[in-house]
Specification:
By secondary structure, this protein is mainly α. The protein contains 19 helices and no strands.
């Protein structure tokens, strides 16, 4: 307990000093993210329970409904990126948060399955618009050598909200239990209301306190732009021609396959093969969130001070060791050690990846670059559970972790092999930003 208290005081001091290092708009985003993640984490973990209990879906049908969110994001994210670059960041974020509130309540109040499906599809299309607008805002506000720590602050806020939300949700559900132990018919409604309210609060904070950050690009000659080494374009096709970025997001998507095992096959593997109960996995999730809250910001600042390709490789290697270790151990204590190792990898590779995605984007295409990065990560997270599930169902559960070890090390090598191209491309983009007049 004393260790946690000391760590809390250290974090408080660092945040106090960091308060002066970042513009007020960053802290506005951080505070709003904490509020919104608190409300969202009350709802997202119980979607499957809600679908199965209120509408009597099977578990497989509920899983199919969940996939609609992912499919919607594959469309909504790129659409949000395009609108962010064309019209600005602030309006897109407010719109996304307001639709999140609307369609979240719509799912809670839907009287029929067709209306529920409509709500899910619209939720999946509009909510992912927030991510590219939010990431572009941070990119606009913070110079390249400090973006990792800024993204780290957002992760701290998100994880703090996620750590609190499910606990409050469990308490609210406990109050909704009838004497026979069953839940009231409208027991889940307060959770959806909380999600809607926190989303609207965040939308109001952005509308009232955040300035529009979309850069006003100064006119420049085609020769200047050519000298910057970047051809400006308004379409997604140009991104596909950006070889360093495509290689980077491909590697990031592949490592996402490994990370996706944490919330999918990992708990099933521990319970099914070693009989470790779900409660133990819940404690592991709590330790993951606590580590991020306590250590993410200083680690992200440390990452900012070092070569990003090395940090990407280090994060991938820690994923390889942490997830790979799961295949060689058989006790709860050693599984917790594995969680600590890949959580360290998470705290290194995620801010490094977000920074690289930001630094590789031309000044007038930041929203679209972030959208493509988000889509590739979603694809990796979608493939991961399917691949892991297939191995587990065929009695090859240990190979999930052997494969994670191999993939993680291969991606780490890939990041290092492409380091020179990554650095050259980042230098081109920074030069372009100066030529086009960004402060």
């Amino acid at each position: 307990m004393n260790v946690i208290t000391r760590r809390y005081k250290q974090i408080s001091r660092r945040l106090y000093h960091a308060r002066r290092e970042y513009p007020e708009s960053i802290w506005t985003m951080v505070g709003g993210a904490l509020i919104n993640s608190f409300g969202g984490s009350m709802v997202f973990p119980i979607f499957t329970l809600y679908f199965t209990q209120k509408f009597h879906f099977t578990l497989a049908e509920a899983g199919l409904l969940g996939s609609l969110f992912v499919v919607g994001g594959l469309i909504g994210g790129p659409l949000g990126g395009h609108l962010t670059d064309r019209f600005g960041r602030k309006g897109i974020m407010v719109f996304s948060l307001c639709t999140e509130a609307t369609f979240s309540l719509g799912m809670a109040l839907a009287p029929s399955i067709p209306l529920l499906l409509i709500d899910i599809v619209l939720f999946g299309l509009t909510v992912p618009m927030f991510q590219p607008a939010s990431a572009a805002t941070i990119t606009d506000l913070v110079p390249p050598n400090r973006r990792g720590a800024a993204f780290g602050l957002m992760r701290v806020a998100h994880n703090a909200g996620v750590a609190l939300g499910p606990t409050v949700a469990a308490g609210l559900l406990a109050l909704q239990r009838l004497p026979d132990g069953s839940l009231r018919p409208d027991a889940y409604l307060p959770l959806f209301v909380a999600d809607a309210v926190t989303s609207l609060i965040f939308a109001w904070i952005i509308a009232a306190r955040l300035r529009e950050t979309k850069p006003e690009i100064m006119p420049t000659t085609s020769n200047q732009t050519s000298n910057a080494g970047v051809v400006r374009s308004s379409g997604y096709l140009q991104i596909l021609k950006d070889r360093p970025f495509i290689v980077f997001i491909a590697l990031s998507g592949i490592i996402g396959i490994v990370y996706a095992q944490m919330n999918t096959t990992f708990p099933v593997y521990m319970r099914g093969i070693y009989g470790i109960p779900e409660e133990h996995y819940g404690l592991m999730l709590a330790s993951n969130a606590l580590l991020v809250v306590l250590f993410q910001f200083p680690i992200a600042r440390w990452v900012d001070e070092r070569d990003r390709s090395r940090m990407l490789a280090l994060g991938a290697a820690l994923y390889a060791i942490g997830f790979g270790l799961i295949g060689f151990v058989a006790t709860g204590v050693m599984f917790e050690v594995a969680v600590i190792i890949f959580t360290l990898g998470e705290m290194v590779i995620i801010p490094a990846s977000q920074t690289v995605a930001a630094n590789l984007a031309p000044i007038d295409m930041r929203g679209r670059y972030q959208a493509v990065f988000g889509v590739m990560m979603s694809i990796g997270f979608g493939i991961g559970p399917v691949a892991g599930g297939l191995l587990y169902d065929r009695g090859l559960g240990h190979w999930i972790w052997y494969a994670s070890l191999i993939i993680g090390l291969a991606v780490a090598f890939g990041y290092r092999a492409t380091a020179s191209g990554l650095r050259a491309r980042e230098a081109e983009i920074e030069k372009q930003a100066l030529l086009l007049g960004e402060a």
